[in-house]
Amino acid sequence: MPSLFSDFWRLVTRYRLYTALNVIGLALGIATFLTLALVARYELGWERWYPGASSIYQLQADIRLNGSTMHAESLTPLLLPGVKARIPGLVAARLEAAKANVAIDGSHTGQEEVVTFADPSFFDVFRLGFQNGDGDTALRGTSNIVLSDSMARKYFGGTSAMGKILTVRREGHTRNYVVTGVLAPHPSNTKIQSEFVLPLPEVAAERPCAEQWGYFCAETYVVLPHPGDVSSFSSTAHDVFTTSLSGQKGTGNFASGTKLILDPLQATRFDREGRAADGSSRGAIVALAIIGGLAVLAAALNYVNLATAQALGRAREIAVRKVLGASRGRLIMRFLGEAQVLAFFAGLLGLALTELAVPFMASLSGWPVEIDYRWSLPVLFGVVLFLGGAAGAYPAFLLSSFAPAPVLAASRMPAQGRFGSRLRMVLVGSQFVFATTVGICTLVVNAQALHLRDISRGMNVRDLLLLSTDRHDETDNRAPEILDRLRAMPGVEAASASAGWLDGAHEVRTIAPVGKSDASFIVTASSVDGGFFQTYGIPLLAGRLPDFRRGEDVERSERHQIARNIVINLTAAHRLGFRDARSAVGQTFSSGNQPEDLKTIIGVVADVTDINGHFAPSPTVYILHDSRFGGVVIAMRTAHGALPGVLSQLRTEWPTLMQGFPFAPIAMTSMIDEATREDVARGKLFAIGAGVAIAIACLGLYGLAAFNAERRMHEVGIRKTLGATTGQIMRLMLAQFLRPVLYASLIAWPLAWVFARTWLAGFENRIALTPLYFVLTTLLAAALCALTVFGRTIGLARAEPSRALRAE
Amino acid sequence: MLIELNHIQRLYRSDEVETTALHDIELGIGSGEFVAIMGPSGCGKSTLLNILGTIDRPTHGAYIFGEQDLTKLNEAALAAFRRENLGYVFQSFNLIDELTIEENIELALIYRNMPKSERRERVAQAMDRVSIGHRARHYPSQLSGGQQQRAAIARAIVGQPRLILADEPTGNLDTENGAQVMDILQGLNDEGATIIMVTHSPSHADLAKRRVDMLDGQIVVSVRNAI
Question: Which Pfam families match (chain A) (predicted)?
Fold first, then answer.
C-alpha cells in the first residue's frame, strides 16, 4: 500500500496536467451527484422520517357533483368521531391549521403565526420527540399548547418555555394557553405544521373549521398498522359518512358522489399530477436526480478518456515493467489501485466542494438541505469505489495489454490506431451529449420560470399593495372605515375588500347553462366590493360592472338578499357555452344544485391567472357583496411612484388602522416573485448542473487536446514543412474536436426535446419550444470547445516545424 | 545563383549550455545543381538543411533565395514560400499515418488551394514518376520502406518546386531500394530540378554534381564531382 501511494505521487508529479484534470473532473461529478442526491433525498423523504410513517394514512375525498370532480385533501370534522365510535382503539387525529396572532401572556404586540388545532391524539399519530413534556399528556388540557424548539426560542429566548403563557387571538376570540411541551428539533420536510400545536377548542365557534357535513376543512390522519386494516377502515368510514348524511335534507347527491380515499402519508407530498403544493414536482426531482447520476457518469467517461490518453504516454514504462517480469494481472491490479487512489482524492475534494455547494444551493433554492454525514459518507464511499473500479478498468486493461517489443522499438507512443482515436472521440462526444442535453433543458426551464414570473395575470400587478394575504375576520366589520382611511391617503388611487380571492380558501359553487343541469361545473365564487375591479385592474371585456345602486346586483348577508346580477370571467362564459364575452352579456345561467335559481350575466371580465402561473384560469363568478364578507383581503392601488410615501404613512397609521396585526403589507409583484421562487430556483439548479456538465466535458476536451497536441506534433511538423500556415493547422485541430461536439448535438437535441416537452406539459401557461434553445446551446458548446482546443493547441500550431519534427 | 548563405550561424541555448550548431556558413548554390552534404553525426548537416528548408531560422546571417532574404520573412510568408518553392524528402519518410499515399501526396497541393481536378492530375503524374500509382489507396504502414520513400519523393515533386531538399533519403533503406531512390533523384536533377541532399553514403554523394563536407558546424570542403 505505501508503494501504491508513493507510485501514485510520482505519477501525479510527472503527469500534473492529466492528474489535475482527472481529479477535478471526478470531484466535480462527485460533488454534483452528492448535492443533487441530497436534494432528491430531501424531497423524496417527505414524511418518511416519522416513526411508523408507513402506517400513517390521510383520509381524503373525491367529490363528484353534477359531472364535475373535485379532490379534497380535508374532510368534514364530523366524520372522525363517528368512525372512532365504530372502531374502538383507532389511533387518529384531526388537524385544523389557521393563522393567528400569538403574543406572550396578553401582550398586544403579537406576531402572525400558523397554529395547528388538533385532537389530543395528535402525538399518538405523529410521534415527535419532546425536549420538555411528553406527547401523552401535552394536549390533554383545553388550555395547553406545545411549541417547536424554534418557536420556544423565538418567544422565550434562553429561558425555559414550560409553564409560560401564550395569548392566541383569532377571528375575534382571545385565549391564553400554558406551554406544556417543547418539541425536539425534527426534519423540516413535512407538511404537518407543528410550530404551535393546540387542542381543538370545545366551543364550535372558536374552531377554524365549521362542524358541518358540507365543510371539508379538517385534515384527518389515521394509523393503520396492518395493510388489511385499510379496506375495513375505508368501508367503515364510507358507511359512517353516507349514514350520517342520509338523514339530512338535500344531501343525497353529495353523499353518493363523495368517495373517501386513504392515501399513505408518504405519498401525499405530490398530487396525482406529481405536483406539490409549494410548486415542487416529482418530475423536477427525478430530473435533478438523473442530472446527478449523469454527472458521475460524465466524470467517469472523462476519467476513462484522460487515463487512456495518459496510458499511451506510459507505454514505455509498462513495456520496461513487463521486460522486468511484471505479469499482466499484477499490472492490472496496480493500475486499478492507482485509479482507486485517484478516485479517493477526488472523493475528498468532491466532499469539500459539496460542503461549499450545499449551503449555496440551499440559499439559492430555499430547500433547507444539509449534509447528513451518516448518509453522505457511505454514498460517497460507494461512488468512489464505482469510479475507481468501473472507470479505472478500461485504462488498466489497455495499459497492461501493450506488447513490450514493438513499444520499445517504436520511437513514438502508440495511439491504438483508428479504434483508439474513435473511442476517445466517442467518449468526448458522450460527455457533450450530456452537457448539451442539460444545457438545452436549462435554457428551457429558466425561460419557463421567467415566463411564469412575467406573464400577464389578467390584472395590473404593478403598484398593487395587499395589507395582508390572510383573511382578516377581525377587520371584517371595520372594512368600510379602513377602506375610507386608505382612500384618503395621498397617492392611493383605489382600495378594495374582497373574500374568496387570493386567500386559498375559495368558496366553490356549481353553475350550469339554463336547462342543462347535467352540464354543470364548479366555479370559484368571489365576494367583492364596488372598488374591486378598479383596484386590481381587471379589465371589463363586455357589459358592465356591478353597482351598489342597483339592488339586484348586491348580495346582503344580513338581509339574506341574493344577488341576481352576476359578473363572470371569460373562462366561465366559455364553459357556459358562449362564444365570446359580448354574446354572454344579458344571458342567464342556473345554479348547479337549484336549476330554477337563475342568474343574469351583466358583465364579463378578463381571466385572472393564479399567482404562480402554473394553472389555467378557473371559471369564476364575482358577486358584489355588502360589507360582511366573513373574512376579507384588503388591497390598495397606488399612483405610480407613490408606493414609498404610502408605505411610510401606512406604517404611521397601522396601529389604529389594523389593530393587533403585524405590519406586513405585501406588493402583488412580491407575491408573484415568492410564488414563482421555486420555479426560478429550479432553473438555477439546472443551470448549476449544466455548468458542471459543460465544465467536465471541457476538462475532458482540454485533456484530449493536450494529448492530441502531443500525438500530432510530428504530423504538424510535416504539414508545416509542406507549407501549412498556423491558421490552417488550427482549423485542422478545431475541426477534429468540433465534429464530435456537433454529432453530440444530433443525439442531444431529440433527448432534450422529449424532456423539455414533457416538462412543459406540466404547465398550462408555457413557452413555445422553439429551435432557438437548441441552436443556442450547440453554438455555446461549439464556442467553448473551440476556446478550449484553441488554448491548448495554438502553441503547437505556431511552433517551428523543425522542433515539431524533432519530436520524433 | 539560386541560393546564397552569408555568415549563417545557429546557436542553441539551454539553461546552462550554449551550443553552436552552425558557424559562419558561406555557401552558394546555382539553379539545377545537385549538392550532397556529408559529414559525421552532429556536424550540423541536418541543421543546415533545416535552415535551407526554412523550417528553422539562423541565429545570425542572411539566407538569400533568388532575390529574396528569407531571414526577414515572418512565419506566414515562410509557409507560403515553402508551399511554392520547396520539396522535402526525409530519412524517415514523414508520411502521415492517418492519410493514404494519395492523400499524403495531395497534401502539398491542398495548401496551395489548387482545384481538386488539377490536384488529382498532378498527384497521378507524381505517383507515375516514382512508380507508386498501384499503392495510391494504401496507408503508409501497408508499404515497404522503399515504397514509402518513393511516395515521399512523389510528395516532394508534386508541387514542381524550385528546390528539393533530401535529408538522408536512403538512410533507412536497403541497398536496392537506396539505389532506386538515387536513380529517381538523379533523373529529377537531369530534368532540371535543384537538389540538396544530406547523406552518410560516399557512393551516393558521388552521384551528386557537387559535394560539401562539414565538420563541427563549418564547411571544410566543397568540390565538384567529375561527371
Answer: FtsX, MacB_PCD
